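Researcher: We're teaching a course module on how sequence relates to structure. For the next exercise, students receive a sequence and then see the predicted structure as tokens, so they can try to spot secondary structure elements on their own. Here is the exercise chain.
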Amino acid sequence: MPAVCVVDDARSIRKSVANLLKSAGYEPVCFESGDLFLASPWRQRAACVLLDLWMPGMHGQDVLAVLRASGDSVPVICMSAHASETMIGQALAGGAVQLLKKPFTADALIEALANILKERP
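Model: And here is the predicted structure for the students to work with:
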């Protein structure tokens, strides 16, 4: 069962995404901040990271920059309710593989994960 890290400051988002991931056969591991995720051993074990762009403290783009600067190539799907075209471009240029605009459908998330994970060795 592939582990998918969910990094979002909104408890309700973490809970609903975790339930969806479980029902689709993934192992969700949730974090309320980028700092907690980066300090966790799950950072090295995740098959994919679902990362909110707008969080207090360390924003998602900062987390993504730390991952890429350290050579970590884990696929990152960014999520945001406030994504402008500029933000989307910055996230993709920074190494995100996709950006989902909140609210997204369960099908959109599961399809994105399936497509990304089938490309991983």
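Model: If you want an answer key for the exercise: The chain has six helices and five strands. Residues 11-23 form the longest helix (13 residues).
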